[in-house]
Amino acid sequence: MDKLDIVILRELSQGHAMLPARVGLAPSYRSMARKLRISPGTIRNRVKALSSSGILLGSSIYFNPNLLGLEGGAFAVEVPSNEDKNEVIEKIKHIEGILFIHNFYSALVGIAFVCEKGSLQSKLDSFRATAGAGEGSGFFSRVMYPPCDISPSGPEWALIARLSRNNYKSYAELAKDLDVSVRTLKSRMSGILRSRAVLSLPTLNYRAITIGVPADVIVVFTHPSRKHEAEEKVLELLGKYLVFAGVGSDYMVYNLIVPSLPMVEDLEDSIGKIAGVNSVRAELVREHIDLARNIAELIPQQIAQKES
Fold first, then answer.
1. Per-residue model confidence as pLDDT tens digits over 154-168
2. Which burial class, exposed, middle or buried, applies to 285 when counting CB atoms under 10 A from its CB (0-12, 13-18, 19+)?
3. Any long-range contacts for 152-155 (C-beta under 8 Å, 24+ apart)?
């Protein structure tokens, strides 16, 4: 795992935009090559090597929560020592609306989720109760998804739901599954991509990383007015190790792959000295649990609620 591998993973995750995920599908090798100023063959070989090593497992595609008026959030909570953390995570997996779970080597568990408007507090209470944590424990941040300017038709919803299952190999296969022509499929695909209706992220197996240390750095800023300037300095420090920046209203999570454990500690100390940073916490990532495809199950029930 070297700097180019990290840059490629960052392009697959977010590209140039600081959003909760990449808008649309994974970029082509050609477009990545133009941006990074290297050959498409180099990109292809690196992606193939990341896949062969078991680090890159594919891409997770899910619908923009704004399509159904859902709220997005990120919540991190400590699992008390008298609770079995593995059992807690298994229970969290079955809570509706879970996108991703980050399991850290410490007692901390990070959760990205969506929920209906007005149900946020009950959702956080559910997480705390499942973890065996006390009332008011943990820290939460809203996640703002990009605006989406489409009201999908039935066939468009069918395409979005099918994309969310993530197991098609070609347009021809996808068109056959949806019983449409490839031409019709491409037209519908163009519309939903242009309207920011679907988002994607690479699915990574952190346990397969043998060269480098996966870590999340969680930064809380002193005040929104100080966030922009402070964040620029944080990104200067983390840039060449950064895979993904989790955008939230109250705190930021920077997903990194760094050369060594001492460097994780050094980065944590350096960020803590930046003006405008209230607190910083570095956590070593044990595993990333991708459950994003499960939220496709929300599509029919949400549509039914809207129609009723």
1. 888 889 888 887 767
2. buried
3. 152/67, 152/192, 152/197, 155/180, 155/188
| pTM for this model (two decimals) | 0.87
Closest-CA residue to 264 (of 57, 103, 105): 105
How many residues does this entry show for the chain?
A: 308
Please determine, for residue 308, whether its predicted confidence score (pLDDT) is greater than 60.
no
Task: Assign a CATH topology to domain 65-146+294-307.
Answer: Alpha-Beta Plaits (3.30.70)
Cα→Cα distances 281→78, 109, 231, 243, Å: 13, 13, 15, 17
Per CATH, 65-146+294-307 and 210-286 having the same topology is answered: yes
Angstrom CA distances, 239 to 160, 183, 257, 270, 271, stand at 33, 41, 11, 14, 13
Question: What 3-state class would DSSP assign to 176?
Answer: helix
Q: Percent of the chain scored above 90 by pLDDT? A: 64
Domain ranges of the chain: 3-63+151-204, 65-146+294-307, 210-286
The CATH architecture one would assign to domain 210-286 is 2-Layer Sandwich (3.30)
| Angle (deg, nearest 10), helices 171-178 and 182-194 | 100
Tell me how far apart the alpha carbons of residues 8 and 3 are, in angstroms, rounded to a whole number.
9
* 3 state DSSP class of 97: coil
Which fold, 3-63+151-204? Arc Repressor Mutant, subunit A (1.10.10)
Which residue type is seen at 160?
I
Amino acid at 266: D
